[in-house]
Amino acid sequence: MSDSEPTDGSRRRTGGAAIVTAAAAAIIAALFHVEGGYVDHPDDPGGATNHGITERVARDHGYDGPMAALPKETAQEIYFDDYIAAPGFDRLLEISVPVAEEAIDSGVNAGPAMPSRWFQIALNSLNRQERDFRDIRVDGRIGPASLAAYAALERVRGKATACRLVGRLMDAQQAGHYLSLASGNSRFESFMPGWIDARIGNVDFERCYR
């Protein structure tokens, strides 16, 4: 199964956006707390960053001022457009807030395609050799096939357990991603303590049961 429906950001201001606004706002507020303000670390290939938004991303959105002065409101719009709506994580928010939070938080740090793949890999690993549902293509795009597979897992395992299983597997893959980065380039070791402390285990999957 493949996700043939394009994720083009068409849901940014309509449809699901009205449903997920409160949940998205809460997640963005948590991101601001984790990311902090302006930094320009010499080991960070992203360069100057403010509120977790890199200079390249800010310029792509039309901001031409100094990065140290990037308004929080602009950063909030970028978070929603690029890291929630565009990759289809708004649809995950409608289904499971903890899983969506894991995807959004990871996507801000690693790029949205990475947690999309981790979500798909987790689903494929939980289908008991396709006895419960068919494998989906791991293409880094959250579309109908991925969401249908998650719904099938919920039917088999129950909503709470499906949420916890997928969320924990995504978190584990995120940790492996950081280890891979640091082993491939020692510059990334500068960020490992912060990544592991702030980004691994930071989503409470006990909320799956609430």
Written description of the protein model:
By secondary structure, this protein is mainly alpha-helical. The protein is built from nine helices and two strands. It has a two-stranded antiparallel sheet with strand order 1-2. The longest helix is centred in the C-terminal third of the chain and has 26 residues, at 159-184. The chain is globular. It starts with 15 loop residues before the first helix and ends in an 11-residue tail after the last helix. Mean pLDDT is 90; it is low at 5-20.
Cα(first) to Cα(last) distance is 31 Å
Structural class based on helices, strands and sheet pairing: mainly alpha
Which spans of ≥5 residues are poorly predicted at pLDDT below 50?
5-20
CATH superfamily: Chitosanase, subunit A, domain 1
Under the CATH scheme, the architecture is: Up-down Bundle
Total helical segments: 9
Count of spatially separate domains: 1
Strand order of the biggest β-sheet: 1-2
CATH topology: Chitosanase, subunit A, domain 1
State the total count of DSSP E strands.
2
Summarize the model shown.
InterPro entries: Lysozyme-like_dom_sf, Peptidoglycan-bd_3, TtsA-like_GH18_dom. The protein has 210 residues and is mainly α.
Summarize this structure as a short list of keywords or feature phrases.
210 residues; two-stranded antiparallel ribbon; Lysozyme-like_dom_sf; Peptidoglycan-bd_3; TtsA-like_GH18_dom
